[in-house]
Amino acid sequence: MQKELITGLLLPFLGTASGSGCVFFMKQSLSRGVQRALTGFAAGVMTAASIWSLIIPAMDMADSMGKLAFLPAVVGFWFGILFLLLLDSIIPHLHMNADKAEGLPSKLARTTMMVLAVTLHNIPEGMAVGIVYAGLLSGSSDMTAGGALALALGIAIQNFPEGAIISMPLHAEGKSKGKAFADGVLSGAVEPVGAILTIISARLFLPIMPYLLSFAAGAMIYVVVEELIPEMSEGEHSNIGVILFSVGFTLMMILDVALG
Q: Per the domain annotation, does 22 fall within a domain?
């Protein structure tokens, strides 16, 4: 179990780090079309993970509530939405291809706020992995090692293009390849840290595990709707984002069912 836990916690981080390494091998920055495609793929994976790996297990765990089994999922989901809304309003960050920063006024460098945008995006992913593995460690019959691995692997797969999406524009903004890679890796480090902290916290709140699962789902859906979908749809000929969204959604659905 310890080996499975370490693997699950590190996979998403390794996905981001590997993608960030693309800055050493690709000479040109990613085109808008490629960025839209990769962002759409990430959105599809996160949406499917929120449903199959988090919301459905949350409702299954509350099955004893009968017709009110939806209640923990609804409450947790909205707390997740509001939590990310709060972070989005406070943390200074700059979305890809945007000119105006969001969050509290700040004098931080443009590249720093770009990294913070991706870091903010990664927080709910780390929480999701941590909560699922906390449920697995608790012996919950609704959590399986395969299902937990499917979530970690799915997030790792979508983190690979995300790593490239952050490191290569940073290099284009004037940072050296080494520093752009380091910033990309740093943006993904929040995931294993967040997962570990969530596991520690979740052990104290096992009775409300359904709420925690749906909380992570709400936080992830907030990121998808507020950030990823607008980015995948910007500009002309944006159908590629929709197609890759569908590919990511399908892949995550397959992983969760096949491995779970």
A: no
